């Protein structure tokens, strides 16, 4: 059964064994980002569900949330995936109390058993502080943005298909710790596709002999995977938006001009996401072009 592109290389296979999920296409884009001039120290205190929506069911609304509550962990993972851990130095802030308690225990133990009045900075150095805070959250989860289906039957034999699409949207902004200024902000969305296929037969094959059969299959794109891709896309956009605003820079700016041009085209609606992914894939398989002066080339052909 064919499914719309969901950002993965393939849908997860059904297996009784634990497995590592395949990389999403947006995760691959993050890994392929060129190296920065220097890493950016960044902190994430939380990335919350701001939709307030609960998961719907056939019997009505349930007490379960429509989206995962672990988006902060996904954001930290996406930040570390950027440039294969070269772009951001992520400091722990979401569970800061646990970190401070553990450091306090170390200080108390060294004071009690080693007699230290002040903790040796070589044993317990100062915490790394962040220059940039990341704020935002999941700001939208729209269900049934697209629905449809089709079916046909002839002489008791028929087939049908149904389709449904939801959309999840995330918002991400970078804030300067020194001034409190909002440096850059991006919004990214991802569709969540569900598709069902079925076939049935209801036919008399002989006198008093009735054939009745029905089969079907349903495929639902995981909500968590869709949210992960939206967050990865937002981080990818934040990196390029920051480069465009001169907040940070690639180590080789000339080699990154094609990425910036593709990002601007997608952001401004000239191309869509699939066009950008195809362009990045083609760029990785092509050699550099040699640009020649047209007038000099003409003179060379004329023998002058």
Mean pLDDT: 84
Strand content: 25-35%
**What's the CATH class label?**
Alpha Beta
Figure out the total of helices.
7
Q: Radius of gyration, Cα only, in angstroms?
A: 27 Å
**Largest sheet descriptor:** 7 strands, mixed
How many domains? The number is 1
Order of helices and strands: HEEEEHEHEEEEHHHH
CATH hierarchy: architecture: 3-Layer(aba) Sandwich
- According to CATH, the homologous superfamily is ABC-type transport auxiliary lipoprotein component
Can you give the helix content as a percent range? 25-40%
Overall shape: elongated
Poorly predicted parts: 1-11, 286-292
Which helices and strands, and how do they pair?
Layout: H1 25-31, E1 40-44, E2 48-49, E3 54-57, E4 60-65, H2 71-81, E5 88-92, H3 96-114, E6 132-154, E7 157-176, E8 182-206, E9 209-220, H4 223-244, H5 257-267, H6 273-285, H7 294-302
Parallel strand pairs: 1-5, 1-6, 2-6
Antiparallel strand pairs: 3-4, 6-7, 7-8, 8-9
Helix pairs in contact: 1-4, 2-4, 5-6
Core attributes:
304 residues, 34% strand, alpha/beta, single chain, seven-stranded mixed β-sheet, 7 helices, 30% helix, Rossmann fold, two-stranded antiparallel sheet
Compose a concise summary of this entry:
By secondary structure, the protein is α/β, with parallel strands linked by helices. It has a single domain (25-93, 130-302), classed as Rossmann fold (3-Layer(aba) Sandwich), CATH 3.40.50.10610. 30% of the residues lie in helices and 34% in strands.
């Amino acid at each position: 059964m064919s499914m719309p592109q969901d950002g993965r290389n393939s849908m997860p296979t059904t297996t009784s064994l634990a497995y590592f999920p395949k990389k999403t296409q947006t995760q691959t884009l993050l890994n392929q980002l060129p190296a920065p001039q220097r890493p950016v120290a960044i902190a994430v205190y939380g990335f919350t569900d701001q939709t307030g929506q609960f998961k719907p069911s056939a019997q009505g609304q349930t007490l379960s949330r429509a989206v995962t509550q672990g988006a902060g962990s996904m954001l930290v993972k996406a930040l570390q995936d950027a440039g294969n851990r070269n772009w951001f130095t992520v400091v722990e802030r979401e569970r800061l109390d646990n970190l401070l308690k553990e450091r306090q225990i170390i200080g108390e133990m060294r004071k009690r058993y080693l007699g230290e009045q002040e903790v040796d900075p070589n044993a317990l150095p100062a915490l790394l502080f962040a220059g940039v805070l990341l704020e935002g959250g999941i700001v939208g989860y729209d269900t049934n943005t697209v629905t449809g289906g089709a079916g046909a039957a002839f002489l008791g034999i028929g087939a049908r298909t149904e389709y449904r699409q939801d959309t999840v949207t995330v918002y991400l902004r970078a804030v300067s710790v020194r001034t409190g200024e909002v440096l850059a902000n991006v919004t990214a969305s991802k569709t969540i596709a569900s598709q069902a296929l079925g076939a049935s037969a209801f036919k008399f094959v002989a006198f008093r002999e009735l054939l009745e059969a029905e089969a079907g299959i349903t495929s639902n794109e995981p909500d968590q995977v869709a949210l992960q891709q939206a967050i990865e896309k937002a981080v990818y956009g934040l990196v390029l938006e920051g480069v465009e605003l001169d907040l940070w820079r690639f180590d080789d700016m000339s080699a990154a001009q094609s990425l910036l041009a593709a990002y601007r085209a997608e952001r401004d609606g000239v191309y869509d996401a699939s066009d950008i992914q195809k362009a990045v894939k083609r760029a990785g398989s092509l050699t550099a072009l040699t640009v020649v002066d047209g007038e000099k080339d003409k003179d060379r052909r004329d023998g002058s």
